[in-house]
Amino acid sequence: MKITIVTVCYNAEKTIERTIESVISQNYPNIEYLIIDGKSTDGTMDIVRRYETIPYMRIVSEEDNGLYHAMNKGVNMATGDYILFLNSGDFLCDNKVIKEISKELCADIVYGNVIRQKQYGEVLERYPGKYKVMWLLLQGKMVSHQVIFTKTSIMRQLGFDESYKITADYNFLLRAKKKHCSMHYVDRNVSVVENVEGISSQHENLDLMRKEDDRSLKEYFPFWYLVLFPIKYIARRKRM
């Protein structure tokens, strides 16, 4: 079973090396590692090029149209059976993650737990991945893409809708549920996610995130959109 790991980055000189090291330290022999850089203007590529002789690593550095455009590039380049997205700054929990998860790849989408933490190591949340995906989606939440292993064939079929600027990964999971893709949970910590500069976590993007979430839910599960809209409206008004 070949697993493709994709890291999308831009001006990530402070975080990229830790991510790379967590991937190349894996004890699983059949990995493809793709680094998709958005033409960084800092020292990111100087760091990345230190690793370019690794035979299973492929590197692209060119301008793109945003995060999901870059992630879709990774999908199109991938040759593995499954694909995992690991952002710059995020890292795999230990060197056995991929080997252990590879034994559980029995569905279209397989996911584990994520640990969220601050920049200096404080753990904020151990993500409860065991909860049903649809229940999370209806709450406007989702399993972090850093712990989701998706069949590459499914990713190519669905891809990320680039009209979404913040929540195309949420939209992807809704469409996967709509198409009845099989999903399997593994109670295993997969990735540690830095809880600092993600675009969906920034306060100024909260309104856009909510609008995109509502748009996705309305399009693919209109019944649940109508049921939940009054509840969401009241909850959001209280937070204002």
Spatial gap, N to C terminus: 48 Å
Total number of domains: 1
- CATH class label: Alpha Beta
* Strands, total number: 9
What is the percentage of strand-forming residues?
A: 15-25%
Considering DSSP H and I runs of 4 or more, what fraction of the residues is helical?
A: 25-40%
The CATH topology name reads: Spore Coat Polysaccharide Biosynthesis Protein SpsA, Chain A
Which terms would index this structure?
22% strand, 240 residues, alpha/beta, globular, Spore Coat Polysaccharide Biosynthesis Protein SpsA, Chain A
What would you say this structure looks like, in words?
This protein has 240 residues and is an alpha/beta fold. It has one domain: Spore Coat Polysaccharide Biosynthesis Protein SpsA, Chain A (Alpha-Beta Complex), CATH 3.90.550.10. It is 37% helix and 22% strand. The chain contains nine helices and nine strands. It has helices spanning 16-24, 44-48, 67-77, 97-102, 133-138, 152-158, 168-178, 206-220, 222-239, and strands at 3-9, 31-37, 57-61, 82-85, 91-92, 109-117, 123-126, 148-151, 183-194. Strands 1, 2, 3, 4, 5, 6, 7, 8 and 9 form a nine-stranded mixed sheet that branches. Strand 1 (3-9), helix 1 and strand 2 form a beta-alpha-beta unit.
